[in-house]
């Protein structure tokens, strides 16, 4: 038993620099993720569909869900509509690239969590068209650090339709 204790101490001591290095990378990772958030917002405003698409991992998943009041409005117009809708980043990127009116998404209460390898972003959003809110809700991204930088691997968001008079 006694020879095991020095071996465990040496193992723990050799791992300490690895953990310190990982912890030091977390602030840098948070800053990089914040840059990804800014790139996302900038791509929307600039109608940059190609730039938007580059922020996502190919094959990632995307789901939106309508709140109850918005769902009731949609069902009256579209009886076959689904409350939870799977989608993909390519359609959104095309929408951004082909938008003919000014569009923008504002983010509030942004929270970023990461260990330097994976991360999440959670925020409240408002989507604007021609300066007027069309919908708002909460949004969350699952992120992965790749050799090409941080990428969005999955996205979930709620939709509350705004009065678009």
SS content category: alpha+beta
Look at the structure and give the mean pLDDT: 86
CATH architecture classification: Roll
Strand order, biggest sheet?
Answer: 2-1-6-5-4-3
* Overall number of strands: 6
What is the CA–CA distance across the termini? 77 Å
What are the defining features of this structure?
single chain, 165 residues, alpha+beta, Nuclear Transport Factor 2, Chain: A, six-stranded mixed sheet, globular
Q: Can you walk me through this structure?
A:
There is one protein chain. The chain has about 160 residues and is of the alpha+beta class. The chain has helices at about 5-45, 50-55, 70-75, 90-100; strands at about 55-65, 85, 105-115, 120-130, 130-145, 150-160. Mean pLDDT is about 85; it is low at about 5-20.
Fold blueprint:
Blueprint: H1 4-45, H2 49-53, E1 56-66, H3 68-77, E2 84-87, H4 89-98, E3 103-114, E4 118-129, E5 132-146, E6 149-161
Parallel strand pairs: 1-6
Antiparallel strand pairs: 1-2, 3-4, 4-5, 5-6
